[in-house]
Amino acid sequence: MKKRASHINVGNAMEGTPLMWAAMKGHTVCVEWLLQNGAKVDGKDREGRTALQHASRKGHYSIVESLLKHRATTDMKDSTGSTATERASENGYNDIVQLLQTRTTTPKKGRL
């Protein structure tokens, strides 16, 4: 039986959870480990951003793929009303925009 990290979803006021930080910084192996060990894929930071939004904004394609594989919601909006697709588009990551557009999902109640 796998031992799960007890504080895997605990975050700080600035950057949110460990999953959000790893997604923002491009740490693919960490993202995958966190997801496999119980990290909430659709958790939000204080500005309403998800790990998917952080990865999309920074152009981390493989992390976006991994988050989508773990059923991240693609059309959640942050505090400014932007989605992951919009964040990727603003920064010129057209490959991520295309990937997200093929996987658009609506937030489901109770998934946070």
Sequence-ordered SSE layout with sheet pairings:
Elements: H1 18-25, H2 28-36, H3 51-58, H4 61-69, H5 84-90, H6 94-102
Descriptive report:
This protein has helices at residues 18-25, 28-36, 51-58, 61-69, 84-90, 94-102. It is 45% helix and 0% strand. Helix 1 (18-25) packs antiparallel against helix 2 (28-36). It has a single domain (18-102), classed as Alpha Horseshoe (Serine Threonine Protein Phosphatase 5, Tetratricopeptide repeat). It contains six helices and no strands. With 112 residues, the protein is an all-alpha fold.
Concise summary:
This protein has 6 helices and no strands. With 112 residues, it is mostly helical.
**CATH topology term:** Serine Threonine Protein Phosphatase 5, Tetratricopeptide repeat
The portion of residues forming beta strands comes to: under 5%
Class by alpha and beta content: mainly alpha
Gross morphology is globular
Order of helices and strands: HHHHHH
Number of domains: 1
Mean of all residue-level pLDDT scores: 88
Helix content: 40-55%
Low-confidence residue ranges: none
Biggest β-sheet strands, sense, barrel? none
Q: State the CATH class.
A: Mainly Alpha
